[in-house]
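pasting for ref
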Amino acid sequence: MILSFIFFMILFLGGFWLLGLAQTIPDFQGLVFVAGILAVSLALAFIMRQRGSATRRDDNWSGNATE
């Protein structure tokens, strides 16, 4: 869990780096920008799909808080 978090945090920050890099390079700005958006989106999608949360509502569709 920790290693996957570290990997996707690096992917998340690398995506932002690609977004900034796209403005400074003379060629392929669009491709680098899209790669940055995809990297950030992939990292966020993975983190959001992880089971459990700080609010302890793991798979709870009944509306009642599980303790």
